[in-house]
Amino acid sequence: MYHLCLDALLLISVLSAIPMLAVGAAAGLVGLLQAVTQVQEQSLSHLARVVAFAAVAMAGGSLAGAEVQSLFLRVLEAVAVIGKG
Which domain does 11 fall in, by range? Predict the structure, then answer.
């Protein structure tokens, strides 16, 4: 049971960190580009964040779903074992 909790925490951390890093990198690049060109349009920053998040979600969505499904099945097996004991 302890390992399932650790696996769940690790999975949550990884699945949330990857999109956050992509969004942060996109926001940093757009911010740098805006500073260099002196274009102060707020919608560019938001657009870059949305596009970065969408790209990461499309690229890794099936892998993330498979990992969550695997963890869920392991939790269901543990619940069945606990219920028998």
Answer: 2-84
